[in-house]
Amino acid sequence: MNWDHLELDQRVVSAVRRAKLKSVREVLCFSGPDLQRLTGLSRSDVQQLLTAAATTCRRHPPVSALLLYHGECRRLESGLRLGVGCPVLNELLRGGLPVGGVTELSGESGAGKTQLALQLCLSVQYPTEHKGLNSGAVYISTEDSFPIRRLQQLIREQSSLRSDVPPSLISSLQFSDHIYIEHAADLESLQVCLSRRVPLLLARGLVRLVVVDSVAALFRSEFQAADWLERNKQLIAFSSTLHHLSQEFTTPVLCINQVIYTFHSWITHPKASARDSVPLSSNVSPALGLAWANQVMVRLMMWRLQETVVRGDQSSVLRKLEVVFAPHLARDSRDTAVWREGVQGVYA
Ligand SMILES: Nc1ncnc2c1ncn2[C@@H]1O[C@H](COP(=O)(O)OP(=O)(O)OP(=O)(O)O)[C@@H](O)[C@H]1O
Q: Where does the sequence pass through the membrane (predicted)?
């Protein structure tokens, strides 16, 4: 679909071309004021542009939207899921992560996102009757070193976590041989990894789960605030690569994201310095904004709560795993805890 499909003044079309906006769909990724800045058009011209773009997209749904509403929905209904390794959390997710689409898991530091991602790298290796996908996982680490010791501990503890699986099956699985660890310290190496090595692993059937831990790290570190346009373009290119991989290989993709805090109001004693101010209330939301959120099919969040739960000789900070949005799930949550053997829902 190009600009000729839009009923617009030639002047507006020329301004859009000068701004190097490549597709009608891309227009809808920007707010009105952003488009005004980009194109130099007036508010009413931009309004006209946005209305025309939205009308055209409704008449000619893009391939990804068609896939979402037909391909992905069919897959969602077909029920093929990757279980997370816990019945309580599987029930929350109606079986687990969908196999066609990008799932985002966001939350504050220490919430347990990496723990759940590691658990999925093991759970994918079980046969489908045990809610796995009978294959391995590729774990792309963009920030910290890969938590290999914790992974080994989770492997040792599998028989405690997966009491639903015969112990003989658990001991026959060579979990660590089927986890491919990739490090991508910058966007260029991430792109190389996603366009060359990951498709190869998927095509050979060696993996059926892609984890990116984390998306926010690279996009935050490589772009200054003024580079928002370039950042959004790269974000959309990155998420479309993930979508294609997920669709082509019927593979769940899990992206870990951080959160940002917005403080609404501050209390400051008249004689205190600015550093002594304390936030009165704060809002937590996933990093990377709308440009990224629009590309995600399922958004999950993990929260750290104030309480502690005890089980046998172990204690854990109580957490909550929440479904923020998903086409097939209601907004809901379950209390969870991180134990030696992994992440599990906590029965009320
Ligand atoms: N062996 C273990 N036994 C029990 N709990 C553990 C174990 N290892 C880690 N944890 C729990 O998991 C928490 C760390 O979780 P995780 O690394 O998944 O955080 P995260 O959400 O990925 O944070 P970040 O964004 O900083 O990477 C620890 O604070 C601890 O509570």
A: none
Q: Which one of 105, 109, 115, 313 would you pick to mutate in the ligand 1 pocket, going by the greatest count of ligand atoms within 8 A of its CB?
A: 115
Whether 335 contacts 318, CB under 8 Å: yes
- Ligand 1 centroid, distance to 303 Cα (angstroms): 12
Q: How far is the CA of 115 from the centre of ligand 1 (A)?
A: 6
Tokens 């093929």 belong to residue: 80
Q: Which of 84, 114, 156, 161 to mutate to test the pocket of ligand 1 (most atoms within 8 A of CB)?
A: 114
Q: What is the ipTM of this complex?
A: 0.98
pLDDT tens digits for 192-227? Answer: 999 999 999 999 999 999 999 999 888 877 777 678
Query: What digits encode the pLDDT tens for the residues 315-348?
Result: 999 999 999 999 999 999 999 999 999 999 997 6
Return the CATH number of 79-345, one of 3.40.50.300, 3.90.550.10, 1.20.1250.20, 3.30.460.80.
3.40.50.300
For ligand 1, atom 24, name the residue with the nearest CA: 109
